Amino acid sequence: MPSETLAPLKPTDAETLTLRQIHRAASELRRGVPVVLRGEATLCLLAAETASPQAIAELTSLGVDAPILLLAPIRAAAAIRQSVDIGASVTAVRMPAELMVPDTLRALADPTLPQKRITEAFETVAAPADGSAALNLIKLSRLLPAVIAVTARPDIALEAGRHDLVSVQAADVLRYPTLEVAGLRLVASAPVPVADAPDARLVAFRTEGSGLEHLAIVIGKPEEAEAPLVRIHSECFTGDLMGSMRCDCGEQLRGAIRRIAADGDGVVLYLAQEGRGIGLVNKLRAYTLQDRGLDTLDANRALGWGADERNFMTGSAMLSLLGIPRIRLLTNNPEKVAAMEACGVQVLGREEHEFDPNGVNDEYLSTKAARFGHMLDRS
C-alpha cells in the first residue's frame, strides 16, 4: 500500500447488489424461511435454530432428496456421539424423518440444551460441495451454525419455476468478509464529550446493504498526527455497558479512552463484532458452557463457531476512511498487529494494554494468554 494513505475500497454496483442479497438471505434464515444457495449444486437451506414444522415441510417439498443436517465437525461429534473427520469444514448428518423436528434439531445444534440420546438413528453422509458456504451463511445471520439442506428440485436449480425464495451464490458468501469491507461507508459524525475525553467525537460507519454499524471514538486530531494511538475494540454489551466481571472489556474500553486522551490524539475503533464475532446471544450460550467447565476458546468451538470469527479488515477500512495510514496499536493481541499490517496499515509500534484480574475473570485472562497468544504477564 502507499506510504501516505490507504485507498478506500469501493464496491462495484454488482458487489453492492450482492451484499444486499446476502443480507436478505441471512434475514430470511433468522425468520425461519428457506433460502437457495447456488454453487456446484443448488441447495435449499433452512436454519435449524429457527425451523418450524411448516418450514421443514416446505424445505422438504423444495428438494429431490431427504433433508440432511449440516454441522461443524466438533459440534457434530458431540451431538451424535460418533467419530467424524474433525479436520473437515462441515459434517453432514442424515436422520429419520420423524426426528427432523424442531426440538431435536435445536438440541443437535445447541449444546446448552438437554441432549437427546438417540445417536443410533444418526448417519454421517457425504457433505455437499458447498456445505462450508451454507454454514457461513448461517453464521452471518448470527444463528447457531446448523443448517438443514436439500438438493433443489430441477425447476428451482434452473430458476425455471415460480418461487419467491431469496437466492445467493456460494462463492459470494465465501468472499463476504472482503465484500463487507469494500461496502463500508462513513455515514455520520458528531462531537460527543465523555468524562475522560471532553474533545471526543463519535463517527459512525455502515456497510452497504446491512444495518450493521461500527463506531470510532475520535479524540483530538489523529488524522494530523504522525502515528496516533489506536485501540481496536470489539463491542461487549456485558462488559462495556453492564460492567461484567467475567471479562476485562469494560476496563479496556475506558482505559483506552483515558490513555488516548492523555496521549493527545487517537482513535478507539468500536467494532460490531460481539463475542469475537459470534454475537451476543451465542456469547451467552458460550458463558453457559464455560460455567460447565469449558474455557473461552473451547466454548465457542463447542457451539460450532471458530475460536475467533472477527474480521479485522473492518478496522483497516475505518482507518482509511478517517485518513489515518500509520498508527501505534494499543493491544496485547499480536494477531491484531499482523492483521493491520496485512491490510496495509503501518503499525509503528505496539503498546501494552493490560489490567489486573478481578477474581472472577482470572481464568478468562489466563486463556487469552495461553490459548489466544495474548501478551499478558500471568506470572
Number of DSSP strand runs: 14
* Gross CATH architecture of the largest domain: Alpha-Beta Complex
Structural class based on helices, strands and sheet pairing = alpha/beta
| Quaternary structure | single chain
Q: Can you identify the CATH class of the largest domain?
A: Alpha Beta
CATH homologous superfamily designation of the largest domain = DHBP synthase
Contiguous uncertain segments of 5+ residues: 1-7
Number of helices: 16
Question: How would you sum up the major sheet?
Answer: 7 strands, mixed
Q: Approximately what portion of the residues adopt beta-strand conformation?
A: 15-25%
On the 0-100 scale, what is the average pLDDT?
90
Helix content: 25-40%
Shape: globular
CATH fold-level topology of the largest domain: DHBP synthase
Encode the helix/strand succession as letters: HEEHEHEHEHEHEHHEEEEHHEHHHHEHEH
Strand order of the largest sheet: 5-4-3-6-2-1-7
Number of domains: 2
Our measurement of the CA-to-CA distance between the termini, rounded to an integer number of angstroms, reads: 39 Å
What features would you describe in this structure?
Helix content is 37%, strand content 20%. With 379 residues, the protein is α/β, with parallel strands linked by helices. The chain folds into two domains: 13-176, DHBP synthase (Alpha-Beta Complex); 185-273 and 310-371, GTP cyclohydrolase II (Rossmann fold, 3-Layer(aba) Sandwich). The strands form two sheets. Strands 5-4-3-6-2-1-7 form a seven-stranded mixed sheet, sandwiched between helices. Helix 15 links the parallel strand 13 (326-330) and strand 14. Mean pLDDT is 90; it is low at 1-7.
